[in-house]
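Whether sequence alone determines local backbone shape is best considered at the level of individual chains. When preparing material for the folding task, we compiled for one chain both its residues and its backbone structure tokens. No coordinates are needed to read the tokens, only the vocabulary itself. For completeness, the protein is quoted in full, as a sequence line and a line of structure tokens:
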Amino acid sequence: MTVAKERSFTKAAEQLNITQPTLSRQLAALEEELGTALFIRGNRSITLTESGILLKRRALEIIDLEEKMLDELKVKEELIEGTITIGCGEFAAVETLAEICKVYKQKYPMVQIALHTATAGSVYEMMNQGLVDIGLFLEPVNTEGLDYIRIMESDHWVVGMKPDDPMADKKYITKEELLNKQLILPQRLSVQSELANWFGKDFNKLHVSFISNLGTNAGVMAIHGLGIFHIRWQ
């Protein structure tokens, strides 16, 4: 991690209080053990290979997990404290999450809640790695191996567009009105399947200009007239 940060064996060795040859031998041994090169060694600086980037990412996750574990082990029995990490996307059920967190914070004021906004796939992976304690998902989602509670709220599909679009004043949008429009679809295949069911045989006729994993940036594209985006909302 230090070598990746400093981009220099010499500077990294100084930070680690070891000699540069010792550090070089250690990293060469690591590369041999892993069977792949981690660094591109240049004349003035070094950079990470694709394998090196992957190892750095996983190392950061390991460090985060270690810090989380140590924090949990330090929690005193008579005082509930620590951090709960919640992963969620951008949807209306976050309002319900806020109400739950408010009640929880009143009962356990010393507990810090960390919100991590990401796609469902990323949140699910981080839960499996122990980096996220609670995930807030928008169905459909794979619940295998998870303990879960359904928040009984109804979500509706919403179409986002420029305010001056002729459809903007309509209360409801039909699928026929969208067939000749440039569309921005959600990245999740399971969510696209829901749209496919709604469009039926016309789904293959859609003009898809963008795929977006979260709604915020899709909205920016729509404001600039680059497409109409679909998002589920309460």
Observations:
- The beta strands are 39-41, 46-48, 82-88, 111-117, 134-136, 156-160, 182-186, 207-212, 228-233.
- The mean pLDDT is 84.
- The radius of gyration is 24 Å.
